[in-house]
Amino acid sequence: MTDPRLAELSRLLPGLRLLAEPGDLEHYGRDWTRRWTPAPLAIALPTCADEVQAIVRWANARHVAIVPSGGRTGLSGGAVAACGELVLSLERMNRVLEFNPVDRTLTVQPGVTLHAVHEAARSHGLIYPVDFAARGSCSIGGTIATNAGGIRVIRYGNTREWVGGLKVVAGNGELLDLNRGLIKNSSGYDFRQLLIGSEGTLGIVVEATLKLTDPPPSSQVMLLALPDMEALMRVFALFRAQLTLQAFEFFTDHALRHVLAHGAQRAIDGDHPYYVVTEFDAADAGDQEAALAAFEHALEQGWVSDGVIAQSGAQAAALWRLREGITESLAPRRPYKNDVSVRISAVPAFLHDMQALLAHEYPQIEVVWFGHIGDGNLHINVLRPEGMAEEAFIAQCDHVTRLLAETLQRHGGSISAEHGIGLVKRAYLESTRSPAEIALMQGVRGVFDPNGILNPGKLFAAAGTPRAC
Any idea where the FAD-binding PCMH-type domain is (predicted)? Predict the structure, then answer.
């Protein structure tokens, strides 16, 4: 390492692992967006909070920007290092530290994967209910930084509902112990909640105390085929009234084609424009009878064209793969992604306007969309046609995103439901936040990170800052 700043950091922390090979810089310098050329200064892999504090203090003294890095499964450019930043990877801080059976909490380091947390909770007869398809590769620190949601928000809420305490290294190098797992704590501002969803711009999570809960009752999984978009909300309202829902996910025929081509098995014959995978409590015969009655009513009303209910765990997993496999099946096409939300009551009107906008602006481009209809969150994937230059494709998508942001503003929605703002969406932040809110957010950032070294360029940027910096 020829950079004198890195040599100084190595002397300061002789046990710190530092990487600077081109392959490492490329691997750690990007996330799933793949839209920016990675160009970090180096990769630091600490193993404890003390090392993180020392790195942050060194970075302040040497005016080096830091990009915190977890599993880098983000889709908004929040973990991109394209401007000579030091990537601070937390993957070696990956231990489960403590299970507290009385408080029913699990304390972990930030590099632990979501899957590992699930397994640790399950070993004690409990669950950590936040869940989504990237569970095997995303890190807990990353899910906290973006307030991740997933497929069971309808029942359990987002990540912030399940974080009892945080230890965080702020931008000035101070270690903050936030809330300490308390259930009640009315002693002023709750910085724990402020840090959740802050995308690494206020501090670096070095430890998290997660709340656990009892496993849900036995459940059943059902796949429904729907004839039109209007039926989505009717079926959701019916099922929510008659059943105790754990999840209610929808996708289109375009999404299904990609998942089937990727190896999933068709579960319903014929072609249908919309599909729903729903999971609901089925602890006894009464629950099962209620589910069958709801399905039959939807069928009689013409809201559902066909359906199938899983008869085993393997069949349930196969039905869920039709929804959870969409992102992986689209990944080779490197789609341009929008992740938006509106109030559940606003979904029908927004869907109508969104469909009209996408049809008008993308007449020759395939758009695959799916989402968590039960919490108003839609994922829009735009696929670049063969032969279309990437620069032209991104420019067109950015133009449409601006129009989409204006549509969301009219419906009181958000340009980011669960992926964060990062680099990709910062130009559209004003569609979701007022100028007064943005000014306050910038002021808060300045307090926690006075020298602006933590994830600069993410969320918002100073005037004249290049798009990727």
Answer: 36-215
Distance CA 251, CA 380 (A): 10
First to last CA, the chain: 24
Identify whether residues 35 and 166 lie together within a single domain: yes
Give the span between the Cα atoms of 118 and 116, in whole angstroms: 5
Is residue 305 within 8 Å of residue 225, measured between CB atoms? yes
Q: What total of structural domains would you count in the chain? A: 3
Q: Is the pLDDT of residue 464 over 50?
A: no
373-427 tens-digit pLDDT: 888 999 999 999 999 999 999 999 999 999 999 999 999 999 998 889 999 899 9
CA 271 to each of CA 205, 267, 274, 301: distance values in angstroms, whole numbers, following the listed order? 46, 11, 9, 19
Q: How far apart are the C-alpha atoms of 98 and 106, rounded to whole Å?
A: 6
Burial of 460 (0-12, 13-18, 19+ CB in 10 A): middle
Q: What are residue 407's phi and psi, to 5 degrees?
A: -65, -45
Residues 322 and 380 placed together within one structural domain of the fold: no
Query: What is the CATH number for 380?
Result: 3.30.70.2740
**pTM for the predicted model, two decimal places:** 0.90
The predicted pLDDT at position 316 comes to 96
- CA-nearest of 78, 81, 76 to 66 is 81
The verdict on 18 and 101 lying in the same domain is yes
Q: Which of 161, 183, 215 is the last residue of a domain?
A: 215
Mean pLDDT, rounded, for 442-465:
86
Specify whether 31 is located in the same domain as 72.
yes
Task: Provide the residue range defining the domain that includes 62.
Answer: 1-215
Rg for the chain, CA atoms, rounded? 23
